[in-house]
Structure prediction request, 421 residues.
Amino acid sequence: MIRRLRRRYILIAMGSLAVVLLILVAGINLFNYRNNLLKLDSTLAWIVESGGDLPGGGPDGTQPSDGTQTPPDATAVTGLGGRRRFNEDDAFSTRYFIVTQASDGTLSASLDRIATVDEDDACSYAQEVLEKKSVGDTGFLKDYRYEVAEIDGATAVVFLDASRETDSMNSLLLISAAAALGCLVAVFIPVAWLTRKATEPVALSIEKQKRFITDAGHELKTPLTILSANAEVLAMSSGDNEWLQSIRKQIERLRRLVNDLVQLSRMDEGAVPQRARFSLSGAVLDTAAPFRAPAEAKGKSLTLEIAPDVDYTGSETDLRRLVSLLCDNAVKYCDEGGAIGVTLRGGKHPLLAVRNTCKAGHQLELSRLFDRFYRGDQARTQDKSGSFGLGLSVARAIAEAHGGTISAAMEDNDIVFTVQL
Prediction:
């Protein structure tokens, strides 16, 4: 239990940190993406406003062959990012090409500002964009940010080289993700150590409780044995009577309580049951069938649906007790004239289900049925069943010791206990 608690603490702490780091990394990269996108769109707006001719030279540093005219107010352009100022140094570092579509649909490319694209590739890029986009649209194609615009009365596609911005965004994403992962690894070590230190007092307290229950159980067995022997001697010497019968009944109840507490304590301590291959079908059938007589004596019916040839590797003794506890619980709390059903299904993970009619089950806190000493009736009387509310707790401990689960659910007016091994 302490290990599960420790793991939960670590998972909660690391999960919370992971969520915070994820939000931080996502926020930084989204901000960087938006900033680069606004920068690219502002540059595209600058190119469009200049009519495609920026001050400065082409890729070889010379003036474009068609000459350059500095556009009016070209150093302060309004793009999607707002007003951004440009100068001739920006013009020299800006690499782009423009593909213009004539009225007859023919395409011509202006490649003075780029050296890595030929005319055929440029026209194919533009054709792909013009098939889907119209004037005013923007987007990405390969390593280029493009805008469909109207320049000098003709439709044109301006392609801006965005490879530097793309590489920058990818680098930031990798660095920030690696930093976040490094933070998780670095924080895990102190969190694991601090969690161990924080749970040590709890572990010590629980360990003392387990040891006390085990030791007390062993100490109680001796006086119970003596009391039982004395009751038998009194019965032989002075004859049996209702008082001696009551004493023997209470001694037996205390013996069952001690045995249950000791078994729960051992399982809590992580005791591993001795495992062996056995017929689970036979064990369930042999254990559940004897409950038919007491059920019918109380006007209740018991049906068995046991899949044949279901084998299992585990503790046959413990699993027989699990079946016995669930059947005993069903017989005790089944409504008058109700039905009880025991079902076993095979497969990789055998499934055992025990159901009984219980119209009052809708009023029960099903999640608490497996708590120790929990009883559905608030008065917690023991006159009707003689139980202490430990049976389902023992059943859960047995199921978990076999790596399985046990749960309770209401289906119509039936309460169903399902064990998945």
The longest strand covers residues 144-151.
